[in-house]
Amino acid sequence: MSKSPHPGNIFLENVPWQDLETIIFKRQKNGETLLTYDNGRLELITPSPLHQEYREILEEFIIALLDLYNINYRGLGFALWQRPDLKISLEVDSCFYIQNLPRVEKLLTISLPENPPPDLVVEIDLTYKSLSRRSLYARLGIPEVWRCDENKLKIYQLNEGEYQQISHSFVFPEIALEGLPKIIKNNIKSGRVAVRREFQKWLMTV
Q1: I need a labelling partner for 114 at 20 to 30 A (CA). Which of 59, 84, 104, 179 fits?
Q2: Tell me: the pLDDT tens digits for 158-176?
């Protein structure tokens, strides 16, 4: 699928960190956009309704798998992660603490780098982005990233500061996950019940 910029997207350069904090505060009152900030460069993306649906459904799938395998977790959903010392700020579609859960499960506020980053971040890749988010994930130290488009799920694992694409997730090492987006794509027009039904059928094959 060809990804194109959403007409509501904004890209700015030479944005000071202090101005970024003001923008983040004001955005809390004005609905949801996906923010990426890298050393003065700022991109604000308005997710499409399809983007939102993929995010919600894939998050449901992950939670169902975690429950099925009795894996404890903390899901923070759509979240903002910042490292002022690195001049990085970005929002992720969904994120989970799994291996590092014991270090954050009792915390009401999680801050980097005082606390570990989430173990798993999910990125819905349906909209063109000017800034490379993968390099920012690496600098934040996020161990695993799932990138989901309409046809395939790609899994990236951090190794010595760089991401390598792998076939299986560290969370679910025995399951081939790449076909999950097709379950969504092939059934989303029939509604969420149809998507969940096909997901349950898929679960019986893993």
Answers
A1: 59
A2: 999 999 999 999 999 999 9
